Structure formats: C-alpha cells, structure tokens
Amino acid sequence: MSLPRIVATLAASLLLASSAIAAPTTAFKVDVTGNASGAPMILIPGLSSAGAVWDGTVKRYCGARRCHVLTLAGFAGVPAIDAPLLATAEQQLSEYIAANKLQQPVIVGHSLGGFLGLKLAADHPDQVGRLVIVDSLPALAAIQMPSITGPQMKEMAAGMRTRMLGMDAATYKAGQLQTLRTMITGEADVQRALVWGQQSDRTTVANAMADLMAQDLRQEVARIKAPTLVMGTWIAYKNFGTRDQFLQGYQDQYRQLPGVKIELADNARHFIMLDDPDWMYDRIDQFLK
C-alpha cells in the first residue's frame, strides 16, 4: 500500500474512532434544583417533551426538596442515543439514584415517563419511595383490547413505527399538532409542546412509542413496593365511553398493584400538569402527607 493510501486509511480510522467516542451515550439530561437537604423528587416527562413541562410542578415542590428533572435523549433537542431508549434510561436512572445517594426518591412520570417510572419501580423496588403516575398505563395497547396478546401488541407497534417513519415532514408535523390538540386544552401550551416535538429526533420518537406499545406491565406491577398514585384523564375521549368505563379501565390495568390509588381528572386532558395543575397538586399533596 502506498504512503498516501496508508495515511488516508489511518485518517479514516481515526475519524471513525473519534465519531464513536463522541457519540452520546447518556439516556437523559438532568436539571437539578431545590434544597440539597430536602427529600428528593425525580420528574420524568413523556414522549417528545422537555423537562420544562414540569416547570409549574418544580415551582410548587422544589424549594424545600431537591428535584431532578429529566429530559430523555432524542427529545426536545437533547442528542439521541443509538441504544434502546426506555431500557437504557431505566438502567441509567437506577445508576443515577445510586451514584447520587438518593434515598428512596419520589418518582413523578407523565405518559411514557410514567411507564418508565413503573418499570423502574418494578425492576428496582427498593430504590423508589413513592410513585406518582400522570396519565400512563401498564399496557397502552390493551386499553381498548384487554385480551390483546403479546404478538399482537408487537405487530401493532411495528405498524405504527413504520407509519411514523414513512411520513413526509409536513404530514408528520400536522399529525403532531392534531394529536397535541386532543391532549392539551390551551393553544399556547399546544404550540410549546409542538416546538418540543419538532426538536425531537423522529427515529427516537417512533422507536420509543413502538417500544411502549409493545410492552405489557400489568403483571409486573405486582413487584412494586412503593405507594402509588395514578392520575388519569377521560374528557378528551368522552365520545368513546363514560367516566365510569374509563375508571374501570384504569382499575383493570392496575389490578395487580397493591394499594394503588387511582384518581380521574374531570377538567384536564392528557397533560394534566398544564390543563389543571391545581387539581394535580391537591392530589399529590394529599398523597405525600
């Protein structure tokens, strides 16, 4: 091999090595606020959301206590990672709790973040002190088909992933906006969440949503030791069932979780912390007493 060829090969190898080293491996960004001596709280946002979705919650709870607000990799401008997001985030969050000596923190998770909180509490039950779930379910794909099988869940998830990745940019953005308007009441909040969605890596979003749709934690939640509060919603879907029917759906999904407390908001859509924060704070206050 000629000297120029050798130099070019070495340069290419070094470039590849440099790229591999530079590739992000952290599954979330953390913003820490509040009193260092206060009881710890970890707040996890949902799909495509920034940790800023919890700004009001942080103002409410993170003076006397120390709060750790996550934004997951690939969401809202945080660099994506190559590894599966949910599994990697769960493992790294467990390591983060141990490394920072957080004694049984309160875990607060919304939507996909709530699912991550459930998985963490089931797989690492001694690390979680209390668990607050904001409109999330152990088996999202089973909400309309309780008897759905694992293979059917995976097939549904794969189809959804293919559709999300196959959209052109304009169609994808229009779909995001339409979905957010069913999940959030205030238009200003819708537009803010849309910016986060547009800043999110589409492959990460599609993969994470498919992973969420394909999993079923309805039996695994029995391993959770932490007292758990679940706050759900129903008004955005009132054309598809009554309040009692939706409440029954939540109760069925969480049936294996001992002592779970389930509340349904009557004036909030999926983003309860934006639509009716006072109602949410009241329930959390009572739960944390």
UniProtKB/TrEMBL annotation:
Ranges for domain AB hydrolase-1: 42-282
Recite the lineage of the species. Bacteria, Pseudomonadati, Pseudomonadota, Betaproteobacteria, Burkholderiales
Q: Which domain of life is it from?
A: Bacteria
Q: Which gene encodes it?
A: rutD_1
Q: Which PANTHER family match?
A: MONOACYLGLYCEROL LIPASE (PTHR43798)
| One annotated GO molecular function | hydrolase activity
Could you say which residues form the signal peptide? 1-22
Q: Does the keyword Cell division apply?
A: no
Q: Which residues form a coiled coil?
A: none
Question: Which keywords appear in this protein's UniProt record, sorted alphabetically?
Answer: Hydrolase, Signal
Q: Does the keyword Signal apply?
A: yes
This chain's source organism reads Duganella phyllosphaerae
What is the name attached to this protein's record?
A: Putative aminoacrylate hydrolase RutD
